[in-house]
Amino acid sequence: MREETGIRGIDVLSYIGTIRYSYFRADGMKSEKEVKFYFATTLTKNIVISYEHEAYKWVAFSDALNMLDHRQLRSIFIKGHKKGFY
Asked: Coil, strand, or helix at residue 81?
């Protein structure tokens, strides 16, 4: 969280799920990635995104769901919503 958003203080409340996928790096080598998702809260209001990102915005659940084009990300997002997190 800190690296990507500048948020230092978070309260992790629950594990949501894991996704795994393969991709090809810039050098042509195949790489595997595993990402774990958690529901967390923070009192931090100032977001400072890393150089890897262009912008951010806060949106409603339905708008966020429409923005996700990766099947596994959509699934994790829906799973958290069904658990009542957002």
From this structure: helix
Number of domains the chain contains: 1
Contact criterion met (CB below 8 Å) for 6 and 47: yes
d(Cα 48, Cα 42) in Å, to the nearest integer? 14
| 2: CB partners within 8 A, 6+ apart | 8
What tens digit of pLDDT does each residue of 44-61 get?
988 999 888 999 988 999
Q: What is the mean pLDDT of residues 5-14?
A: 93
Q: Which residues pair with 31 in a beta bridge?
A: 23
User: Containing domain of residue 23, as a range?
Assistant: 2-82
Report field, pTM of the whole predicted structure over 0.90: no
| Two tokens, residue 2 | 């800190």
